[in-house]
């Protein structure tokens, strides 16, 4: 098939999922065309069967807000025309689903048999999409999609609750490349970071408010107070970084905390981790947690959103009530002070991650594409 995939290019989860899906489909001999406003972060090297198209945008002094949605729709319409697209798959509803709808309208009759699939990821539903300034458009665009997928049961239910959706929503979870995300020997790195063989606690995110990064620092401080000699590695960057740095200064633990910034090879950091913290205020799936689990790292998270669908309490890590930093610190101390406990959770975490192995999930998407193509063909003829 010739498949167009539209996504955000940044370090956020939807862009990662879209790009890894593109790679998985390309390995199965599909031709994938990726469309975004800059090169997606996970599209690091040349990939046979993947072409990347950057959205061209003309700016003009009149435009305080250049209309990206229109430039995207315009380019999608060109792509449908020139690349013989069989499937149009957009990730994150805003504005991608709307632009794709418009592109199909521009092409008209010939595009009717091309399924437009919208994958819902998170804040496109829970925060941004349900804001009154976008809600009508999101409602309309989801209902105009030929297929809709959500990354968890939780997100599927939230979508039905918040919007007036008249479509079946298929749950297709996030997935993981088990060969890339596995514990590997990074002794030199561990020695450089932890010369006294301290335990390593890791958090990875885009440092937005929803990720509760200052809370990560508070939990870590409590772990130190519990008598654990440890280092905290914070991977990523974003709006709450300064608040987190401020917390480190306030607690006087700056020498124990390293801000590593955005990293391409997260699996190297995860390879030396003993514990992963994700105390998010909401999380529709928790791809960062899955990456940690795949590297055999136990995870402590808030019991919220889609996280309990992935993380099994007392099996692959622990779930605590939202904002219960005491609970998270106590479980952290338990894991970091008891080797057997760590080994048990670590093995189970990897095993659980294996259920989300990339080829299984790519097959799910492939089957979904085929099903929709058949349905549309029957409808059009
Ligand atoms: O909603 C966001 O924060 C952004 C979004 C994205 O597009 O980067 O992340 C979401 O999608 C990921 C991939 O499906 C999920 O693993 C994340 O849990 C989800 N983030 C949130 O719900 C906060």
Report what the structure shows.
This protein is of the alpha/beta class. It folds into 2 domains: 2-175 and 358-380, Glycogen Phosphorylase B (Rossmann fold, 3-Layer(aba) Sandwich), CATH 3.40.50.2000; 187-356, Rossmann fold (3-Layer(aba) Sandwich), CATH 3.40.50. The protein is 44% helix and 16% strand. It has helices spanning 13-27, 68-82, 96-107, 123-126, 135-144, 153-162, 187-193, 213-225, 241-251, 266-270, 287-294, 307-310, 325-337, 339-354, 358-380; strands at residues 2-6, 31-36, 50-54, 87-91, 116-120, 147-150, 169-171, 199-204, 230-235, 257-261, 275-278, 299-302, 317-320. The protein has a 7-stranded parallel β-sheet with strand order 3-2-1-4-5-6-7, sandwiched between helices. Strands 10-9-8-11-12-13 form a 6-stranded parallel β-sheet, with helices on both faces. The longest helix is centred in the last third of the chain and has 23 residues, at 358-380. The chain is elongated, with a radius of gyration of 22 Å. The structure holds ligand GMT.
Give structural attributes.
381 residues; alpha/beta; Rossmann fold; seven-stranded parallel beta sheet; six-stranded parallel beta sheet; 44% helix; 16% strand; binds ligand GMT
């Amino acid at each position: 098939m010739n498949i167009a995939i539209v996504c955000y290019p940044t370090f956020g989860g939807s862009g990662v999922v879209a790009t890894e899906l593109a790679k998985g489909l390309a390995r199965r001999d599909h031709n994938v065309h990726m469309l975004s406003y800059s090169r997606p972060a996970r599209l690091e090297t040349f990939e046979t069967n993947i072409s990347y198209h950057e959205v061209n945008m003309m700016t003009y002094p009149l435009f305080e807000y250049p209309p990206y949605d229109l430039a995207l729709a315009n380019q999608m319409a060109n792509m449908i025309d020139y690349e013989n697209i069989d499937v149009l798959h957009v990730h994150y509803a805003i504005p991608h689903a709307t632009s794709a709808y418009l592109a199909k309208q521009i092409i008209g009759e010939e595009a009717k048999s091309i399924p437009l699939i919208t994958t819902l990821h998170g804040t496109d539903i829970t925060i941004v999409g349900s804001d009154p300034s976008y809600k009508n458009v999101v409602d309309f665009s989801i209902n105009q999609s030929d297929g809709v997928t959500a990354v968890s049961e939780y997100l599927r239910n939230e979508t039905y609750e918040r919007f007036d959706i008249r479509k079946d929503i298929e749950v297709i979870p996030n997935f993981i490349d088990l060969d890339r995300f596995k514990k590997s020997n990074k002794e030199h790195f561990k020695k450089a970071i932890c010369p006294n063989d301290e335990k390593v606690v890791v958090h990875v995110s885009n440092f937005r408010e929803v990720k509760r990064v200052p809370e990560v620092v508070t939990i870590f401080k409590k772990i130190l107070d519990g008598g654990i000699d440890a280092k905290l590695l914070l991977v990523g960057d974003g709006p709450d970084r300064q608040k987190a740095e401020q917390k480190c200064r306030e607690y006087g633990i700056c020498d124990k905390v390293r801000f590593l910034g955005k990293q391409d090879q997260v699996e190297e950091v995860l390879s030396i981790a003993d514990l992963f913290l994700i105390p998010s205020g909401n999380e529709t799936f928790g791809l960062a947690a899955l990456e940690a689990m795949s590297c055999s790292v136990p995870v402590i998270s808030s019991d919220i959103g889609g996280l309990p669908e992935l993380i099994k309490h007392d099996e692959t890590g622990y779930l605590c009530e939202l904002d219960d930093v005491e609970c998270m610190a106590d479980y952290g101390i338990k894991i970091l002070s008891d080797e057997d406990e760590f080994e048990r959770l670590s093995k189970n975490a990897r095993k659980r991650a294996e259920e989300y192995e990339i080829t299984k999930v790519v097959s799910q998407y492939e089957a979904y594409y085929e099903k929709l193509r058949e349905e549309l063909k029957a409808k059009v003829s």
